[in-house]
Amino acid sequence: MRLANVAGRLVSQEGADLVDVATASDGRFGPDPHDVLDHWDEFMAWAALRPQAGPLVATPAGVGPPVPRPSQVFGIGLNYADHAGESGMALPSQPMVFPKFSSCITGPGTVDLPSDTVDWEVELVVVIGRPARHVPAADAWAYVAGLTIGQDLSDRALQFAGGASPQFGLGKSLPGFGPIGPWLVTPGEVSDPADLEISCELNGSQVQHSRTKHLIFTVPALIAFLSSHLPLHPGDLIFTGTPAGVGFGRDPAVYLRPGDELVSTIEGLGSLTTRIGNAS
């Protein structure tokens, strides 16, 4: 399945058409894109009887974040070896977890700059579909509602302002710093959810390119690790990490400027366009 939030209503792609879920289900499921995640098993049973999606259609106008109100958003740092290398940091021995506060979540569109040190990070984002606690890695995909594209935008000056106590969560959670979308795609809709091509273009030039098979800690490993420490809830998001090619890893460093455009693409999930607005 491919789901989207269009003008605040949940829609599903059936063939080449976008279908309003509340209308198609005769009110069995409400229009709020987030509410269906609390009834994911019931929704998937209903969806199995509906027409399947065809080839990916163009991003609809008015699209918002496919998960508008996650209760928890986890960021994973240094989860590609090449990004750890460009950051000058050692490979982590366990997942490096930081919060992205949920108020930063937005959909495709424009993000205003709070400073002149804002950087890009394309990421595969996992959407949890079932309550998860102490989940073995072998069972973890069963707890995934879907996958989407994310940008872990980062104000590097704020992120590293604490010196020995960096402000990862704060520097990565300013307004608009968590664009996701445009689609939530169920894992069975892609060829191999563990190995997807991932890339980012800045103003038409490719700045990041890799495959998710290069994640140091895989999606199942992350779900197992996180759920061993705390409960995961339907709609929670995991930003799984970014490959090499970010701005601060360049010499000299490159940061986003008003008028820039980021296009983040993941195989089978479409493309997320983020435009950079004026300084706020």
From TrEMBL:
The segment(s) forming the Fumarylacetoacetase-like C-terminal domain are 73-276
GO molecular function (one): hydrolase activity
Which domain of life does the protein's organism represent?
Answer: Bacteria
Q: Which residues form a coiled coil?
A: none
Pfam families in alphabetical order: FAA_hydrolase
Which Gene3D superfamilies is this protein grouped with? Fumarylacetoacetase-like, C-terminal domain
Keywords (alphabetical) are: Hydrolase, Metal-binding
Q: What family name appears in the similarity comment?
A: Belongs to the FAH family.
PANTHER family reported in the protein's UniProt record: FUMARYLACETOACETATE HYDROLASE DOMAIN-CONTAINING PROTEIN 2A, FUMARYLACETOACETATE HYDROLASE DOMAIN-CONTAINING PROTEIN 2A-RELATED
Query: What is the name of this protein?
Result: Fumarylacetoacetate hydrolase family protein
Upper classification of the organism: Bacteria, Bacillati, Actinomycetota, Actinomycetes, Micromonosporales
